[in-house]
Amino acid sequence: MTTPDLDLSEILDVAALTEECGQAVRANSGKLLEMRSALLPILRAASTQGRERVKAQLFADGSGIRCAQRLSWLQDRIITIIFDCAATQIYRDAAKIAVSAVGGYGRGTLAPGSDIDLLFVLPAKFTPDMHKAVEFVLYLLWDMGFKVGHATRTIEECIRLSKTDMTIRTAILETRYVCGREELVRELHQRFDHDVTRDTAPEFIAAKLAERDERHRKSGDSRYLVEPNVKEGKGGLRDLQTLFWIAKYKYHVRDAGELVKLGVLSRQELRLFQKADDFLWAVRCHMHFLTGKPEERLSFDLQPEIARSLGYQPRPGLSAVERFMKHYFLVAKDVGDLTRIFCATLEEQQAKAAPVLTAMLGRFANRPRKIPGTIEFIEDRGRIALADKDVFKRDPISIMRFFHVADINGLEFHPDALKIVTRSLSLIDNDFRENEEANRLFLSMLTARRQPGQILRRMNESGVLGRFIPEFGKIVSMMQFNMYHHYTVDEHLIRSVEVLSEIDEGKAEDIHPLAATLMPGVEDRDSLYVAVLLHDIAKGRQEDHSVAGARVARKLCPRLGLSPKQTELVAWLIDEHLTMSMVAQTRDMHDRKTISDFAEKVQSLDRLKMLLILTICDIRAVGPGVWNGWKGQLLRTLYYETELLLSGGFSEVSRKDRAKYAAEQLSKALGDWSDKDRAMYTKLHYEPYLLTVPLEDQVRHAHFIRDADSAEKGLATMVRTHSFHAITEITVLAPDHPRLLSVIAGACAAAGANIADAQIYTTSDGRALDTILVNREFPIDEDEMRRGATISKMIEDVLSGRKRLPEVIATRSKGKKGNKTFPVQPHVTISNTLSNKFTVVEVECLDRIGLLAEVTAVLSDLSLDIQSARITTFGEKVIDTFYVTDLIGQKVTNENRQASIIARLKTVMAGQADEFRDNMPSGIIAQQVQKGPVAQKKVRA
Hints:
single chain, alpha+beta, Beta Polymerase, domain 2, Four Helix Bundle (Hemerythrin (Met), subunit A), four-stranded mixed sheet, disordered C terminus
């Protein structure tokens, strides 16, 4: 490998190292183990010092490809010195073999933590000493700590195996001479070109692209995953390497620059290739140096460090790490563009191999034919192609027609046509954007009952969408640095449209029964689709993205052809697109004030329907596992309660009369009980319970409480699973205590259960009937019931004192580091306007094991009675809401007391309340349990 432009003199003094190693070998002549022992510290020190110097040069010039080349050069020198020691001082026959690099190392590039892939090429007639020399080299490299992939073969074996094994064929394709007998490597290259590659390019290309597709599938099949795999992920280094493998195999080139001469890439595209390669190598090298291992996943905890290493600075609306990751995803998009352009040229130049290539690419082997209704485009094997290369130059609006014709005819895109689209983006100017037909065609594609998401993604990947809607262009490849969002903003918006299309086509009834019922009744589909596409378009700005997004909509919608009324509807939906989700997940929907405030904001049933559907699309498109049936149930509850109010269906009967009626209904439902039991167990419940808990659950609870009393159990639990809601319900009956919820929450944390909701009720005989809803873990009910039983036992063990809460929490937390990657400032809000009866305390902070137990314990210490709690997690962040009163049932209105509550909560949220963890309560009701239910006294309220 020649590296004339690299500064290598400071990396390693080759002559001095060679001499030092020679002296060590001669001093231990004839003693093999002693030789290795003498060489090891010398070589290890040289390698360590050399790598540190390479690292310093990486920080100095920032070039990833130069760093990889320097490391490769350093490794070459070390291997050469080891081999020369073996060949000149120990095994004379070793000079007859060749040492070559293969794989990435064969390309003359090496990442700090990468394997060293070697091929030892033997002559046709070899001796045992040659194998011993190979072992000598390998043992020293292993002793130095390198992971070495290796093979020892003759040229004949290499050729024979490469004909049947595509992995071996790819490795030999990149064979590079390192040391030893060079003519063996030259002969291998000649034989490989003559006996293997000739007339087999289509077969190799098909295998490599199929391998790439499978790799993409395993890694998530999206280049917009926010924790990408830099090496194997879509748009990563392996994709660029695949392109070069194909080019090298088909065109016999040794350098990417030769592809320009062959007409495969333009000079601009070559520069794009080189910039992408250099950037990805820089990221990968920094990752390996930072972690000290071959880490390929650009995880959240690495991203800020890499951003700092690469010199990114924050800008208004975007942090340094978000700017770095946006650059990363733009590069990944460039890699996709290059892949498409390369494949287009490849197919064009390989016309005679079309049957193989088209089968490989999943095309239809038809001759080009006219597409009815257009003279600008033709169909070529199931793909839309251009009638001639100047179509867009003559009429730029044809760029939009190109996608529209493909959409209405269900055609794939010819890569050559997409290449011309990408090269014609400058034609999309202000006149194009204001063109009535262009906007009409775009809106038609967006709202079509076909596959709008697929068309939008093609438009985005080709650069058309960002040029046509410049505001969209600003969020292309933009990530949000948190654990909640799995995709870049542009990918999230396109996936949101895909979810809407799924609902619109009636394919999501099992997931969204209410939305599926409402969607056919949505008269203004255009406004809904536009709102879904644009709802996050203002992300990355300093101001609230909902407010800024509404402003963008007011500017853009008239251009798209929407009326003033539609424009205001879209703007309202974008402005409020987070409202329904936040109300459903963080507010008590059994509190009438919650519903009336939300209804006042929505104002009409049409808005309510559209906001529900938009909310579903938004949550579903965040990423895998974010949506579940419980969130769906919360949204449905909020919808139905608000619908009643908007349609005038809310009861005007007094609260007292409605509670009395509910008690009568419960008594009737217990008709097979004795009059005494019916009276006793009906009178156990206060108004909040009777008015909010469904009758079916009241009956179930009554049986549960009576069974516990019959068994004289002061402490009892009951488990029920909800597969559709993805929730497991645990009901706890226990003597009431100010810290009861805190201990239950701690026990759930110790059992590894995430609490989604908590409904807390006190019975008239001083007991607590608390219902805890935890996120489901297992798909099969039997497995989930066993898990629920385990959680219940943990709750009972902690409450009764059989287990100490601090110890079980510590066991659960052992080995788990606190998440310091995402700085979430603790925030506390206290409001007396969100409920007519309760003070609402909302806490927002970084999640951790046992947090809920600590927060609820503090609230109890502050003499606050928790009436209900909503527990919501957004990735690494929690927003927990507590409806509380003081101990006499009144709101907390004193400002000094509110300030004290905020200060205490911020202390525990920041992880500084050590005294609580040291004195975490356990067995708080052990004595009360022994007394039995009759002797209990009401502790809370």
